[in-house]
Write a structure and sequence with these properties.
heterodimer, A: 489 residues, alpha/beta, Amidase signature (AS) enzymes, 11 strands, B: 481 residues, alpha+beta, eight-stranded mixed beta sheet, three-stranded mixed beta sheet, 38% helix
Chain lengths: 489, 481
């Protein structure tokens, strides 16, 4: 049964439980077996809680179920799940954010995040946490603390990052979907590299409380990586919604996102962009070809596609404020983790990139930080004007085919080398974190080596509904569920 | 006719125009006459826009809900292309700065048919709860001209209270709508974070502390104007969930039986509350009870957090410093101590050593604190918090002004006036000051009511109920049209 379950999406697994064909326990036991068998090849899951997960199920099965247990109509009863080890804390479980010092201290979280609680209330059974680069700072997943996660399509290549552990686990069939977060593309990048659906939610859609109000001045959002569009929609219905005291709240959807699956999106006005931002030069030809192919597919579905993108995308001044905000938050993260550990974290405790960014952040004044935020907000207004004329921006998710592991390492001369190397790999994803727009990566293409290539669709603020409609339409037109990576449970 | 028009609210003036009982130009000319008569004594309007107003009125005014109704706008919290913008600052005044862009908020008000007849006084950069900028001189309270109007929207409040205009634009980053509404006997509601766009010139001013709206004499004006100005504009960094129906339709709707918590003390470090301010809140409590609501002494425990003001100040001071950086950009040179008031310079200097990481930490702790405050509404079952708007009655002019050699004086004296209001700029909740009470000396004392996030609808319902139970429309200040 294991092999069959491994290929089912979460909705299908939940249906099996609902129909009585499979018990929750069987679902979870099968996932545990897959993780034990396949994870050593890919290093996606870095901590497990198998016994506690089984206890969770037994508690639900008990007559006197705990208050927090899922209701009987929970959408994902017994469906196995993994949490990225960044944000989204779970009481008693490791919270290391890719940091060696936290791993060595065996640091654990004291409480469940709101999102963790929502996932569990939906019936999901958390089996462990997945690998992340230190503080989620890179588009690859190779922290010194836990070693590299390997791409199931080619174990010599990166799974992308920073949600690379979750992406590899889902792609390899360990679980049907997994938690991820995105502050510059960290859901969409690994989704593209591993052949998955990666939806970056709108700013304010998913609460990151109760331990905080924002991540990285609202640049970062949380959600998940999935194999099917319907799973993304159904899980968004679980994750979305205001929690008490959220600093900002996205306007709620008019109806459940799951209801958008199968709805005709109408004739959309789509702008296609395949140039390197700030230049007229194209990104890698294979990525251009994949985006053009997706454009053709959209046209065949009746949409209008033309070459167009926001002029502000080409404005090089957008990059500086982004770096300033990330740097100040890296410094804040080291300060607050230092407080949690009861000692200051020094240069030897973190990777060279982390130290370089945090040092930059420490030399940034509050005023400079505020000026950067102001510049970013001003830039957003001109960027978003484009959506007055268009519904969706279509780009390749990534600017080049998936690089080999090690490509983003710091060098002895330049701790920032890997960070700078990211620019050509991820030219399109960070802008949506600046504007707060929703965006999705869909696995519609592949390169000449057979590696997945993502298609990136960006909608106006708060229009996840539109993205789900068009994503479901594309999935229906060119299904990807039959494709399997080299390494698969 | 002037005297009769002077105390009609904006809704009533708009009705006269709609029924063709009066022309927009007659309304505007009457308001200009009132400003010319009253302003020398009050110093509320600092940039008259009379000719622009006449020109606009003679052309085709938009067919909006407030067509032809005169109003004033504050010389802060928004820019109007072609009109001076000094923000209470002498450097901008010396430069004669005139912005080239118009705020979305002003575009929406103009689109509704309002006619701007002048810009009103504000303390420098809106930093004080009184309106006595060195650059422009003090605005005087129409109820007692030796008293403060409060601030920072003191110029607009004096103009509305004295009957020059029915409504005045205002902004609130620590209480600047509610405080002057309290001191001048007006209705002032600070909307929820994200309700009104601050664009295009700003995204989220002061880390989301600032919101914009109006001060008014009637509740229905405030509700109908919020209908005009609410809603996202392209590129806003965040936006409030939309109301389920227009706010003007909440006026007159029975709010049901509400559970209200009464709080008449501030966190200990912020000092005692004046007995007259306590009496005002207790009086409102009795009115609420007479309307069938349940009032008990209760409030979020987090409001007693001694570190609250410290957190607010780190964000506030950094924002002041960033404001001076913008000033330097406009001036094309560094800002010097003599370019700003002593207290402003002190705030900016104190922010010099705050790092970006410390700022992030301050915002983080404020956000976690917000969750504790908000849980009182979400988990403890309360609908409204009732407090005095300020901890002291309107002070005499000069009381809050720092001498050159003691810039801390103004900052310390500001505390009792913002102690009840500023926490809800941190949380982003909607809050309002209602003018139900007068001190023994005949000065207005406002009462603040705070709702759960995004529940302006509930505030308007209960405000209209209070207005009906204890009408204030017929009260007239000493100086009035």
């Amino acid at each position: 049964m294991t092999d069959e379950l491994a290929t089912l999406d979460a909705t299908a697994q939940a249906d099996l439980v609902r129909s009585g064909a499979v018990s929750r326990r069987e679902l979870v036991d099968a996932a545990i077996a897959r993780i034990e068998k396949t994870n050593p090849e890919i290093n996606a899951v870095i901590s497990t809680r198998f016994e506690r997960a089984v206890t969770d199920i037994d508690a639900v099965d008990a007559v006197d179920a705990i208050d927090d247990s899922p209701p009987s109509d929970a959408p994902f009863p017994g469906v196995p799940f993994l949490l990225k080890d960044l944000a989204c804390p779970m009481a008693g479980e490791p919270s290391h954010e890719g940091m060696r010092a936290l791993r060595e201290a065996e640091h654990t979280a004291t409480h469940d995040g709101h999102l963790t609680r929502r996932y569990r209330r939906a019936g999901l059974v958390v089996l462990g946490r997945t690998n992340t680069p230190e503080l989620g700072l890179l588009p690859t997943t190779e922290p010194d603390s836990y070693g590299p996660t390997r791409n199931p399509w080619d174990p010599q290549r990166t799974p992308g990052g920073s949600s690379g552990g979750s992406a590899a686990a889902v792609a390899a069939g360990l679980v049907p979907f997994a938690h991820g977060s995105d502050g510059g593309g960290s859901i969409r990048i690994p989704a593209a590299a591993c052949g998955l659906v990666g939806l970056k939610t709108s700013r304010g859609r998913v609460s990151i409380g109760p331990h905080a109000g924002e991540l990285n001045r609202f640049l970062s959002v949380q959600f998940a990586l999935t194999r099917s569009v319907r799973d993304a929609a159904a899980l968004l219905d679980v994750a979305a919604g205001e929690e008490t005291g959220d600093p900002i709240v996205a306007p709620p959807a008019r109806r459940p996102y799951l209801d958008e699956v199968g709805v005709d999106p109408g004739r959309l006005r789509v702008g296609l962009m395949t140039s390197i931002p700030g230049t007229a030069d194209p990104v890698h030809p294979e990525c251009v070809a994949a985006a053009q192919d997706a454009a053709g597919l959209l046209e065949s579905l009746g949409h209008h596609v033309e070459v167009s993108h926001p002029a502000a995308f080409d404005d090089p001044s957008r990059v500086g404020p982004f770096l300033t905000v990330w740097s100040a938050n890296a410094a804040y993260a080291l300060d607050s983790w230092g407080r949690a550990l009861g000692r200051d974290l020094g240069e030897g405790d973190v990777e060279p990139l982390t130290w370089a960014l945090a040092s930059h952040g420490r030399s940034t004044s509050a005023t400079q930080f505020l000026t950067a935020v102001g510049e970013m907000q001003s830039w957003c207004r001109s960027f978003l004007d484009w959506w007055d004329e268009f519904d969706v921006l279509l780009t390749p998710t990534l600017g080049e085919p998936t690089p080999a592991l090690g490509s983003f390492a710091a060098t002895s001369e330049s701790p920032m080398a890997g960070f700078m190397r990211s620019a050509s790999f991820t030219p399109y994803t960070p802008v949506c974190n600046q504007t707060g727009q929703p965006a999705i990566s869909l696995p519609l293409g592949h390169d000449s080596d057979g590696m997945p290539l993502g298609t990136h669709l960006v909608a106006a603020p708060f229009r996840e509904d539109l993205l789900i409609r068009v994503a479901a339409q594309l999935e229906d037109a060119r299904p990807w569920s039959g494709r399997r990576p080299t390494i698969h449970a | 006719m002037t005297d009769e028009l002077a105390f009609l609210d904006a809704t009533a003036q708009a009705d006269l125009v709609r029924r063709r009982d009066i022309s927009p130009l007659e309304l505007v000319e009457a308001a200009i006459t009132r400003v010319e008569k009253l302003n020398p004594e009050l110093n509320a309007v600092i940039h008259p826009l009379f000719e622009q107003a006449r020109t606009a009125t003679r052309s085709d005014l938009p067919q909006g809900p407030f067509r032809g109704v005169p109003m004033v706008v504050k010389d802060l919290d928004g820019t109007l292309a072609g009109a001076p913008y000094h923000a209470g600052n002498r450097l901008l005044a010396e430069l004669g700065y005139v912005p080239e862009t118009t705020s979305h908020l002003f575009e929406k008000l103009l689109g509704a048919g309002f006619v701007f007849i002048g810009k009103t006084n504000t303390p420098e950069l809106g930093l004080m709860p009184t309106t006595e900028p060195l650059a422009k001189g003090p605005t005087r309270n129409p109820w007692h001209t030796e008293r403060s109007t409060g601030g920072s929207s003191g110029g607009s409040s004096a103009a509305v209270a004295s009957g020059m205009v029915p409504v005045g634009h205002a902004g609130d980053g620590g209480g600047s709508i509610r405080i002057p509404a309290s001191h001048c006997g007006l209705f002032g509601l600070k909307p929820s974070r994200g309700r009104v766009s601050l664009g295009p010139e700003e995204g989220g001013a002061w880390a989301g502390l600032v919101m914009r709206h109006v001060v008014s004499r009637s509740v229905r004006d405030s509700a109908a104007i919020l209908d005009v100005i609410e809603g996202p504009m392209t590129g806003d960094p965040y936006t409030a969930p939309p109301p389920s129906r227009p706010y003007r339709e909440e006026v007159g709707v029975n709010p049901g039986r509400l559970r209200v918590g009464l709080r008449t003390h501030t966190a200990a470090a912020m000092g005692e509350t004046d007995p007259e301010c306590v009496a005002a809140a207790e009086d409102t409590a009795r009115v609420l009870e007479s309307l069938g609501h349940s009032v008990e002494v209760a409030s979020p425990a987090a409001l007693d957090d001694e570190n609250l003001m410290e957190r607010f100040m780190a964000v506030f001071m950094s924002s002041v410093r960033a404001g001076l950086d913008e000033l330097a950009l406009l001036a094309g040179r560094d800002v010097r101590p003599e370019d700003v008031e002593p207290t402003t310079w002190m705030y900016a200097s104190m922010a010099a050593d705050v790092s970006g990481a410390q700022y992030v930490a301050a915002v983080h702790t404020a956000q976690v604190w917000t969750r504790h405050v908000a849980s009182w509404w979400a988990d403890d079952g309360f609908d409204l918090l009732l407090t005095p708007t300020c901890a002291e009655p309107p002070p005499v002019l000069g009381d809050l002004v720092s001498p050159d050699d003691n810039p801390l004086h103004g900052a310390l004296r500001a505390t009792p006036f913002a102690a009840y209001t500023a926490p809800f700029n941190v949380t982003g909740q909607p809050a309002m000051s209602v003018p139900l009470y007068f001190s023994a000396a005949g000065l207005p004392i406002g009462t603040q009511l705070v709702a759960a996030p995004y529940r302006e609808d509930l505030l308007f319902r209960v405000a209209a109920q209070l207005e009906e139970a204890r009408p204030w429309a017929d009260r007239r200040p000493t100086v009035h049209a």
